[in-house]
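User: I've been trying to design a sequence by hand for this structure and keep getting stuck. Would you show me what you'd pick, starting by listing the structure so we're on the same page?

Assistant: Good idea, let's start from the same input. This is the structure you sent:
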């Protein structure tokens, strides 16, 4: 069955059709959520909440966007809400990055690339992190990212630029230590 057929069957109460939709989109949604929150217990909870919210609202889905975009929008909003609850924001004091991540990683003799990237992403302000996850990790266009986050395309580009600069500042000393 196609995505639209599965959605229509799910709307009519077919739980297997809904389960098929969950299985189809579970991995991309998990990638978005973990990209924003990191690999933590809250990420799994948010991932499940995405599909609970979708189940409750699938009759309201009007098809103006793809189902993946709709689910990603829910995932981004729930992830950002979770970040606000945790108050895990990057603190910048006098232009210097203040965090324990750099010290911990600089002292470590072995680096895992994915863990390094995940930790660096977690240091980005959530507005920049969401842009990086959508544009660079999920491959959404600037226009699609703007629609999902409900911001102008120019804002997407400027936040992406600032995020890339920040990631370079975070990763440059760590990569030097690795070499």
């Amino acid at each position: 069955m196609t995505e639209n057929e599965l959605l229509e069957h799910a709307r009519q109460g077919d739980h297997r059709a809904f389960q098929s939709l969950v299985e189809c989109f579970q991995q991309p949604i998990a990638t978005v959520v973990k990209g924003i929150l990191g690999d933590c217990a809250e990420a799994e909870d948010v991932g499940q909440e995405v599909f609970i919210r979708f189940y409750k609202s699938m009759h309201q889905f009007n098809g103006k966007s793809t189902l993946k975009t709709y689910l990603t929008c829910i995932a981004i909003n729930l992830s950002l809400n979770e970040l606000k609850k945790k108050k895990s924001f990057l603190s910048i004091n006098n232009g210097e990055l203040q965090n324990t991540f750099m010290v911990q990683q600089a002292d470590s003799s072995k680096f895992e690339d994915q863990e390094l990237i995940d930790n660096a992403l977690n240091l980005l302000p959530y507005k920049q992190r969401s842009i990086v996850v959508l544009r660079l990790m999920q491959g959404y266009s600037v226009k699609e990212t703007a629609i999902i986050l409900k911001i102008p395309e120019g804002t997407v580009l400027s936040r992406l630029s600032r995020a890339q600069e920040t990631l370079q500042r975070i990763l440059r000393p760590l990569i030097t230590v690795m070499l």
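That's my pick for every position. To get oriented when you compare it with your attempt: Residues 88-111 have pLDDT under 50 and may be disordered. The chain has nine helices and two strands.
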